[in-house]
Amino acid sequence: MSTATPDRVGSRVGPSRRSQLTLRTIALTYLGLLVAVPIVLIIFRTFENGIGAFVDSITTPAAISALQLSLLIVAIVVPLNVIFGIATALALVRGRFRGRGIVQAIVDLPFAVSPIVVGASLILLWGADGWFGFVDEAGFRVIFALPGMVLATIFVTLPFVVREVEPVLHEIGEEQEQAAATLGASRWQTFWRITLPAIRWGLTYGVVLTVARALGEFGAVIMVSAGVAGESQTLTLLVHSRYIDDHNTYGAYAASTLLMILAIITLLLMTVLDRKRHSS
Amino acid sequence: MTDATPAPAPPTSDGEVTTGSRDLQRLVASSDAIATESHAIVVTDLNKHYGDYHALRDINLSIPGGSLTALLGPSGSGKSTLLRAVAGLEVPDGGTVVIGGEDVTFIPPQSREIGFVFQHYAAFKHLNVRDNVGFGPSIRKQPKAEINRRVDELLEIVGLAGYQERYPTQLSGGQRQRMALARALAVQPKVLLLDEPFGALDAKVREDLRQWLRGLQSETGVTTVLVTHDQEEALDVADHIAVLAEGRIEQWGSPREVYDQPTNDFVKSFLGPTARLRGVLVRPHDLVLSHEAVGDAVPVTVERVVHLGFEVRVELLDPDHGPLAAQTTRGEAARLDLQIGQRVYVRTGQAPAA
Question: Which end of chain A, N or C, is more open, meaning fewer C-beta atoms within 10 Å of its C-beta?
Fold first, then answer.
């Protein structure tokens, strides 16, 4: 395990230096081929004609609209997932109620169900002929409009906050909250002053995963989007339509790179924010 | 950095002890906490079930104001449940809890005006020592300057002056528990409830800290209830001991009473070492050895003589009733000149408890 004691590597306790190196080479090659190479290739293709071409491609009206729609969906989905995710995690960890096992399974469902199935089921439910079709008939469009895309994105991102916050809640236990109660803090005060700061790392990670997934979601969203360029396309749909419909390969690469840049910004922002709050 | 016990009272420049301790009383206790008369805590017919498990059975207990009471019992005896029910952290199935003359049975812990200290400190890990201790006053919306002054004074008392900016992870176990104590005292509680406060600490730190707590309690006069499974700790610090077993209070009394006049064999064996002489439970130090058969003395054989510093433990074998151990002094052992395999006579020196 440790490279600090090379003289002991190769003794009977650990794997030999040779097998260790082999293992690392295999792991790195695997990661490189499957993850790094495709990403680097897209970035390379995006910038091989210079920054100007990239900027032109991501500032077309369709691209700007797609960026705005993607960010709008994120802005709606993240707060909802934070509120309901924390509430669900609290109920699962602190609550003593029947049917907890069922709730656990439901939370994991979006991991198991294919996003395209999610999209199809949303159409069945909210479409003109669906159970909630009266909403559509009343003039409030859900399917093939923003509400449908938000619903689809919530469905696929639902587990992240819950699953990141839950183990942290388990780990911190109830004693700090009980101590706060004996010191006079109401439930609400205890939540803001004790529980929330204690779970902030888990929450941060859950939010990062939610943002990344919300930006990247494709299968569920394409089913419920009207798919009109410059109107109801997210960035992922833009990549798809540029490549498939417009045969604009370069435009697809540029939009992909924009998506990746957004994901990296999210990661950096969260890290910086939390470090700032921690040190203050 | 060390866990050496600080003096309970901060050194005062004028050296007048009474003034100092009265200041201390004013500082950490609300005026009605120093209840010289009546009872600070009265528990009546308290019952608690966890499913089929009967954790508290008809508990009746009156704790005198200003005293330090130990709830002593083995694990599962209900002592922690009882303390948590007094704090409002457990809701009893039946019975009442009265604190300072007020029925608090249906009042949440927030409004009970108690201080609670947990075995594992329950330190707020994301807050420094100042904010931990100042948590209660800040919830009560006291002015910041006043909170800071009070926190500084309390940290002085618990021997953590200068630790204001540290975080709990930068403190030792003993320091964390003293911080937790300061945090509990900061809200001027009517009663101070301690749930195995020294249970997670090293033996040496534990002993120092309990002496320090005893001193602090005497100085402040805050009615204090301490849960422990350590009979030595209870005998050492408490004014009164309630011995619990299986959800019942087996005995209530002063340390001497529960030790010398235990109401049953459980209390006797839980409060100290025991030996069985012809079916009767006795203390090893109450056994008297002699070479002559006087009165009802029982003939036994010396199996082993163990010198434990000042004490000498003599392991004996009663041919009819099996082994037992007597405890005697060095001088007595030397006078008897005990030899292994020797036949001696043993009897109880004091009247055995009824």
Answer: C
The tokens describing B133, both together, are 């201790």
Between chain A and chain B, the number of residue pairs with CB atoms below 8 A apart is: 59
What type of residue sits at position A101?
G
ipTM of the complex: 0.82
Q: Which of B81, B84, B86, B110 to mutate to test the interface with A (most CBs of A within 10 A)?
A: B110
Q: Which of B122, B184, B186 sits opposite A175 (nearest CB)?
A: B122
What mean pLDDT is predicted for residues A226-249?
A: 92
**Is A157 found in the same domain as A222?**
yes
Q: What is the domain partition of chain B in residue ranges?
A: 17-265, 275-348
Nearest CA in chain B to A194: B124
**What is the value of pTM for the model shown?**
0.81
Q: Copy the structure tokens of residue A88.
A: 């669900």
**CB atoms B123 and A176 under 8 Å:** yes
Interface list for A 169-198 with B (CB within 8 A): 172, 175-176, 178-186, 189, 193-194, 197-198
A267, pLDDT greater than 50: yes
pLDDT 10s digits, B64-81: 999 999 999 999 999 999
Q: Which residue of A has its CA nearest to B133?
A: A183
Residues B284, B277: Cα–Cα separation, whole Å: 10
Stronger pLDDT, A267 or B24, i.e. the higher one: A267
Range of the domain at A12: 1-48
Mutate to test the interface with A, among B50, B89, B99, B192 (most CBs of A within 10 A): B89
Residues B8 and A76: their CA atoms lie apart, in Å, by 56
For residues B153 and B166, is the Cβ–Cβ distance under 8 A? Answer: no
| Angle (nearest 5°) at CA B186 between B185 and B188 | 70
Question: Is A89 in the same domain as A191?
Answer: yes
User: What fold, for B275-348?
Assistant: OB fold (Dihydrolipoamide Acetyltransferase, E2P) (2.40.50)
Asked if the C-beta of A275 comes within 8 angstroms of chain B's C-beta atoms, the answer is no
